[in-house]
């Protein structure tokens, strides 16, 4: 990204109009006494193609010099003369402590390396990288080369997964690689690697012999690491990636000890919330990825934790300076010019053992009872489908056992992680579901898990009650989470205080989901909207998701059409759609 800003000889002015997204940045500018100071500057952020074609009034030498370089060839190896030609204003980005700025050579090298990374991966990575994502992969490369590990802490929705897969591709020939994540995300990681990097072999591991060599990525969950970590620690890995690494925030736990025992040439932690409660959690991640730099917890506490807790701004600056080389944490606002107005993220969730068992039992019972014919068949197919989808949401919705909610539904656990991150970053969130009982379960779970009172907007409310919920949510101090019925809240509402939407369950009509998402993607929304859909892997929900991809352009695809399509299948075909795909 390039930041366009104005200097009037004695101070900064407003950013050039009509260019990019406005953002306030900390930049190094001349002070009144002739020295250089760090000040907040109004800037317009633009991506490389936009910058190359920018025509602003009264361009300064720094802008003209950069444009000459990028119009020639941004991927050309920079020469020392190129760096010498850049005035200080062209690279006036201060370090974390505000005591130095990025050098001209460094700025040129970052531009060059980012373009090279994007070019190298075009043939092997089946994704169109945004510039900041290419930069993230390049940053992972150089940081691991220098320090042996890194923490990628980009805000949720910026594509940490695809950046990591690009990094894994780069290291494929170095040996087998390991990805550890929450159990609910194992299937999603396997799917995304297969989708974006078909040249890599993916092995889902739950224990037993480790079958892996070069160009193989082993994906496993934190419970498997905790129970069988010794087997993983007995071999050397080219790379170890720990997703949702806040799971390792307590270094004394068995799973954190198992993670530190992994022998890897490169260790990467992925998290949207490197600090959830206190700075000791940050030390745990830093110690995991770069134990040579952050080896002593007592020293970390003495130098940073205690003085920061006592209000020391100098200690906070020292900490930012210390972690800057190994932590990359970008927000959506920082890369807004490279983002679309709406980011879609489809996450696959693994079923728990309880869900698998109940899903299979329900389907077996439906098959034994038979699906009938005619109108009766339509009703029986709908009943079986509804029961199976409720199991995907939570097994207690079918069994009636709702005493303990956590740890029993892969989808609920993943949704909990998303909400936890959004609460940490103060990002109000809408959660849509089709089922009244599921909505009530979510409201209860958020209250028990986070102490949050989430209103539930559903069809059983009066118009006055609905209006009150909307007004309350839109208020600046409104609730951080709002649960909504997909049908009741699909149209007519404006809920632009939120920029994050979660679809907890899927239905046939993609237009209905799109209409619901547009409650936040409306006039008045100033942020990039993140829409996350949760799909239970190996189940009928994957069939529904596949129909979404095929039918997304058909705005009039009704729900009844989806049921009718299933009912029209013969029994063998229907069972094939409904049954769990155990081999995947």
What does this structure look like?
- By secondary structure, the protein is of the alpha/beta class.
- Helices cover 43% and strands 16% of the residues.
- Strand 4 and strand 5 (36-46) form a beta hairpin.
> How would you characterize the largest beta sheet?
7 strands, parallel
Average of pLDDT: 87
Low-confidence stretches: 551-558
Side-by-side strand order of the widest sheet: 8-9-7-11-13-6-14
The general outline is globular
The radius of gyration is 26 Å
Number of DSSP E strands: 20
Q: What structural category arises from helix and sheet content?
A: alpha/beta
Fraction of residues in H or I helices: 40-55%
Give the amount of beta strand, in percent: 15-25%
> Could you give the distance between the termini?
40 Å
Treating each run of at least 4 consecutive H or I residues as one helix, how many helices?
A: 22
Defining traits:
six-stranded parallel beta sheet, alpha/beta, 584 residues, 16% strand, 43% helix
Summarize this entry quickly:
By secondary structure, the chain is α/β, with parallel strands linked by helices.
How does the SSE layout of this entry go?
Blueprint: E1 2-4, E2 6-7, E3 12-13, E4 21-30, E5 36-46, H1 48-53, H2 61-72, H3 80-84, H4 104-121, H5 131-147, E6 149-152, H6 160-170, E7 177-181, H7 186-196, E8 201-204, E9 216-221, H8 222-233, E10 236-237, E11 239-242, H9 254-260, E12 263-264, E13 267-270, H10 279-289, H11 297-309, H12 313-323, E14 327-328, E15 342-349, H13 353-369, H14 374-393, H15 396-399, H16 410-424, E16 429-433, H17 436-450, E17 456-457, H18 463-474, E18 481-485, E19 500-503, H19 510-517, E20 529-536, H20 540-551, H21 559-567, H22 571-578
Parallel strand pairs: 6-13, 6-14, 7-9, 7-11, 8-9, 10-12, 11-13, 15-20, 16-18, 16-19, 17-18, 19-20
Antiparallel strand pairs: 1-5, 2-3, 4-5
Helix pairs in contact: 4-5, 5-6, 6-7, 8-9, 10-11, 11-12, 13-14, 14-21
């Amino acid at each position: 990204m390039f930041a366009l800003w104005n200097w009037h000889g004695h101070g900064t002015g407003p950013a050039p109009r009509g260019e990019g997204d406005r953002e306030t940045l900390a930049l190094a500018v001349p002070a009144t006494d002739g020295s250089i100071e760090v000040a907040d500057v109004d800037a317009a952020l633009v991506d490389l193609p936009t910058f190359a074609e920018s025509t602003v009034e009264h361009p300064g030498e720094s802008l003209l010099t950069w444009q000459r370089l990028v119009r020639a060839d941004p991927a050309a190896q920079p020469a020392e003369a190129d760096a010498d030609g850049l005035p200080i204003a062209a690279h006036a980005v201060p370090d974390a402590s505000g005591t130095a700025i990025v050098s001209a050579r460094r700025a040129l090298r970052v531009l060059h390396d980012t373009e090279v990374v994007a070019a190298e991966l075009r043939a092997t990575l089946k994704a169109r990288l945004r510039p900041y994502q290419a930069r993230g992969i390049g940053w992972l490369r150089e940081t691991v080369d220098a320090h042996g590990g890194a923490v990628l802490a980009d805000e949720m929705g910026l594509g940490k997964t695809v950046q990591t897969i690009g990094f894994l591709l780069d290291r494929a020939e170095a040996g087998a690689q390991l990805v550890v994540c929450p159990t609910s995300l194992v299937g999603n990681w396997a799917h995304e690697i297969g989708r974006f990097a078909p040249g890599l072999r993916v092995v889902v591991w739950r224990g037993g012999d480790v079958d892996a060599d070069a160009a193989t990525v082993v994906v496993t969950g934190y419970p498997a690491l905790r129970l069988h970590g010794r087997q993983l620690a007995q071999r050397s890995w080219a790379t170890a990636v720990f997703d949702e690494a806040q799971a390792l925030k307590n270094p004394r736990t068995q799973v954190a000890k198992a993670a530190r025992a992994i022998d890897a040439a490169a260790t990467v932690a992925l998290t949207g919330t490197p600090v959830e409660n206190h700075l000791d959690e940050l030390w745990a991640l830093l110690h995991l990825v770069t134990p040579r730099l952050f080896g002593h917890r007592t020293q970390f506490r003495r130098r940073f934790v205690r003085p920061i807790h006592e209000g020391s701004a100098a200690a906070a600056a020292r900490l930012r300076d210390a972690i800057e080389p190994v932590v990359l944490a970008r927000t959506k606002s920082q890369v807004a010019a490279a983002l679309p107005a709406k980011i879609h993220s489809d996450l696959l969730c693994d079923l728990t053992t309880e869900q698998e068992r109940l899903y299979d039992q329900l389907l077996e019972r439906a098959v034994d009872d038979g699906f009938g014919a005619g109108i009766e068949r339509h009703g029986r197919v709908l009943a079986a489908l509804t029961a199976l989808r409720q199991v995907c949401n939570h097994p207690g919705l079918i069994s009636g056992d709702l005493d303990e909610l956590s740890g029993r539904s892969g989808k609920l656990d993943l949704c909990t992680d998303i909400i936890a991150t959004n609460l940490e970053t103060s990002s109000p969130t809408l959660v849509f579901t089709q089922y009244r009982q599921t909505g009530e379960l979510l409201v209860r779970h958020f209250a028990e898990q986070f102490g949050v009172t989430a209103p539930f907007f559903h069809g059983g409310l009066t118009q006055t009650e609905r209006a009150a919920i909307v007004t309350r949510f839109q208020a600046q101090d409104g609730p951080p989470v709002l649960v909504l019925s997909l049908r009741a809240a699909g149209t007519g509402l404006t809920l632009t205080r939120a920029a994050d939407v979660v679809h907890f369950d899927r239905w046939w009509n993609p237009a209905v989901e799109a209409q619901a998402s547009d409650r936040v993607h409306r006039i008045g929304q100033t942020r990039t909207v993140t829409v996350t859909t949760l799909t239970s892997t190996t189940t009928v929900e994957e069939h529904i998701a596949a129909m979404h991809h095929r039918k997304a352009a058909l705005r009039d695809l009704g729900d009844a059409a989806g049921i009718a399509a299933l009912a029209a299948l013969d029994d063998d075909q229907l069972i094939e759609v409904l049954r769990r795909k155990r081999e995947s």
